[in-house]
Amino acid sequence: MSTSYLPAGLPAPQPFPDGLDRPFWDGLRREELVIQRCQDCQRFQWLPEWLCHRCHSTRLEFAPVAPHGRVYSWYRAWNHPHPALAGVSAYLVVLVALAEAPGVRLIGNLLGDPMRDPTIGTAVVGAFEHQSEHSLLQWRIHDGPSRKDGPHDED
Ligand SMILES: [Zn+2]
Questions:
Q1: How close is the Cα of 152 to the center of ligand 1, in Å?
Q2: At CA 19, angle to CA 18 and CA 21, rounded to 5?
Q3: CB-based burial of residue 52 (10 Å sphere; 0-12 exposed, 13-18 middle, 19+ buried)?
Q4: Cα–ligand 1 centroid distance for 19 (angstroms)
Q5: Is residue 102, in this structure, part of any structural domain at all?
Q6: Is residue 146 assigned to a domain?
Q7: Å from CA of 48 to ligand 1 middle
Q8: Ligand 1 centroid vs 45 CA: distance in angstroms?
Q9: Total domain count, the chain
Q10: Cα separation of 149 and 2, whole Å?
Q11: 44 C-alpha to center of ligand 1: Å?
Q12: Does any domain span residue 149?
């Protein structure tokens, strides 16, 4: 298992008790990002629901998408009420608009120097962080050659 961005002992995101988002968590374990998509109107949606937000279809599936996106927003956390963060000066939280799932934005940490100021629109790539119970999707600045992004966030 790899090291985690934040110290151990923090409450981590958990799967829904009803199992609705289980494919997402199972995908992260395999280092694959899967997002719920409507089989009728083809729209992606997040968080997972029992109905399509757009056409109300119940024919929903989880489809693989590349773990690539752009910084939609970000936040630097300074003040940490949780004791597990006592030795942490700051960390970055980013909201990432996925390149291949228009309208879907995922939240995670931005790995690397927490004192840098990310630019809105910066290309990022997913980094799978395996913890004991679950795996998380974190993000790092995409510094490779530019890639074709597909559609951008619609709203
Ligand atoms: Zn639909």
A1: 19
A2: 120
A3: buried
A4: 20
A5: yes
A6: no
A7: 12
A8: 9
A9: 1
A10: 28
A11: 8
A12: no
